[in-house]
Design brief:
globular, 11 helices, four-stranded antiparallel sheet, single chain, 26% strand, 327 residues, 12 strands, Ribosomal Protein S5, domain 2, eight-stranded mixed sheet
Length: 327
């Protein structure tokens, strides 16, 4: 298993015994990649950075400074997912909840299938582990965040980076993971519609049962998907990222997918899939492909010249540092 990167040499506390400031950097993730439904996640080079500091008692329980994408939503203190996760973990562990000041810089699109809630929940568990001096292992942190997220794919990839496959061990809180794809240099294009889609609504579109034919098709393609990343076989991705379990049922709620799926195999586009539950669409692209040409083709196929398209790459997993630097 890869490690959550901890760049500190040793924990430190102030004179009152409160752990010192901490910085977390957590990547966006794209789950499923088509066939790998609820089992596969890919870390992307868009991050949520949290600088957190415990404050003396007597003031507000939470203050936030937020910059970057959706800064107004990230700055909400009443229902902040990062803090609420931290507070819940500390309360369940019978540890005091210190007043916190958070400086958040967000690059992850919210409500687009890019793992924003997984990053927030993992960050909240990591903050609780730090400020509560819980001493949890990497496995325990991931298991707690996965349990709160409801499925392991995004959280595991956020924690461990690259392409991470994950499964919950029945009857146990343990999450089994394996990571590959550290050496591939494929580019990623993330195509974002104007309207968001909640995971709950996207899941409600799925059927309760599937045919054996559809399940076998996805098992075959998920196996190819992992092999493609492990071996750097981009030629496998066009087929490996095809899906029969969730994407066909989400087409109407994710209108960018039908016109963009046929781009797989053209112009250096290796594969196309919904990013997570959508509605964003992810394209995996050869490293030497012409990004401007692909972008123009995407906008033409989507019939939207102003469509937002983010170029990024495959990234490493979450990091934690005790040395807080200004943005």
């Amino acid at each position: 298993m890869s490690e959550l990167r901890n760049e500190a040499i040793a924990p430190h506390s102030d004179a009152a015994g409160i752990p010192g400031p901490v910085r977390l950097v957590l990547p966006a993730t794209s789950a499923n990649l088509g066939s790998g439904f609820d089992a596969v996640g890919l870390a992307m080079g868009l991050t949520l950075t949290i600088d957190a500091e415990a404050l003396p008692p007597g003031g507000p329980l939470l203050t936030i400074e937020a910059t970057g994408r959706n800064a107004d939503r990230c700055a909400h203190t009443g229902d902040n997912l990062i803090f609420e996760t931290c507070r819940s973990v500390l309360a369940r562990s019978h540890r005091p909840i210190p007043p916190l000041h958070l400086r958040i810089h967000n690059q992850i699109p919210l409500g687009m299938g890019c793992g924003s809630s997984a990053a927030a929940r993992l960050g909240g568990v990591m903050l609780a582990n730090h400020f509560g001096s819980l001493g949890w292992s990497q496995e325990a942190v991931i298991a707690e965040a996965c349990q709160r997220e409801g499925h392991p794919d995004n959280v595991a990839a956020c924690a461990l980076g690259y392409l991470t496959v994950s499964a919950v061990d029945a009857g146990s809180p343990a999450v089994l993971t394996a990571t590959c794809g550290q050496s591939v240099d494929w580019k990623l294009l993330l195509v974002l519609p104007l309207d968001s889609l909640s995971t709950e609504k996207a899941r409600a579109l799925l059927p309760a049962q599937y045919s054996r034919t559809d399940v076998v098709s996805n098992v075959q393609r998920t196996s190819l998907l992992v092999a493609a990343f492990a071996l750097g076989r981009g030629d496998l991705l066009r087929v490996a990222m095809q899906d029969r379990l969730h994407q066909p049922y989400r087409m109407e709620a994710c209108p960018l997918l039908p016109p963009l799926l046929p781009l797989a195999g053209e112009l250096g586009v290796l594969g196309v899939a919904l990013s997570g539950a959508g509605p964003a669409v992810l394209l995996v692209v050869e490293p030497d492909a012409s990004i401007p040409e692909i972008v123009n083709r995407i906008r033409r196929e989507a019939e939207d010249p102003s469509l937002e398209i983010i170029e990024t790459g495959i990234d490493r997993g979450a990091s934690q540092s005790l040395r807080v630097e200004p943005h």
